[in-house]
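agent> Task received from the user: take the single chain below, predict its 3D structure, and emit structure tokens. No templates, no multimer pairing.
agent> Plan: (1) validate residues, (2) run structure prediction, (3) serialize to tokens, (4) report one or two observations.
agent> Step 1 OK, no nonstandard residues flagged.
tool_call: predict_structure(input=
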Amino acid sequence: MQALSASDPRDRHEEAPPHPGPGLSIIIPCYQERGNIVPLFHAVRKAVTGYDWELIFVDDNSPDGTIDEVWNLAQADSRVRGLLRIGRRGLSSAVIEGVLSSSAPVVAVMDCDMQHDETLLAGMADAISQQGYDIVIGSRHVKGGDNAGLANAWRRALSGLGIRVAQCLLPIRVSDPMSGFFAMRRALFVQSVGSLSGTGFKILLDLLMAQKSRPRVIELPFVFRTRHEGVSKMDRKVLFQFVQMLFHHLRRRYK
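)
tool_result: status=success, residues=255
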């Protein structure tokens, strides 16, 4: 067998010191968000300084070239990754694939349109890694929170109705189960995957209804901002998927 030379790449790899992975993975599902990619990255970079983090954009093959913007950014900063999905659509399933591709013990989920407050991310991670919580919800409906960024009165009424319906079905009381901004232990997410419906936009509600035991949950207030760029994905199909997801869990509960 040929001996390894001093310049053999395998030899250099063995001598290299280990490089720890990130402490926080931030999952960003996106569609038609090209103009938001770079501003969101810079906002996260400025806000999250106490953790090594990775930013995982999950793009549903946007025709505006969103994934190209992500990949260009990833060439400049290795903390950015882009996951392109072909032939699959939907926020919940995008989040699931993003989390399963992550490596940090704490995962956070936020929208790409900059309506969620990135300055809350470090506090969310602290609540899990230092205070022992399992799930941290960015809430618009606790003291200090606000949903002013919702587009119109119809959206606010629809959100309020969805929250009231969800609260009737959840085993734990939370003020904003419809929030799209939350963090949790990655191990708990992975443990829950087999029970998720994976449909629609309300992945947090899906996760809360999938729990077999009561997780430790805390809600932190944030102000829901106006959209930076892009348009809302809310339509009748989303409402149908919301009902479909509720029935999925009700069937599981009463089997």
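agent> Step 4: summary for the user.
The beta strands are 24-30, 53-59, 80-84, 106-109, 135-139, 182-185, 217-221.
agent> Done.
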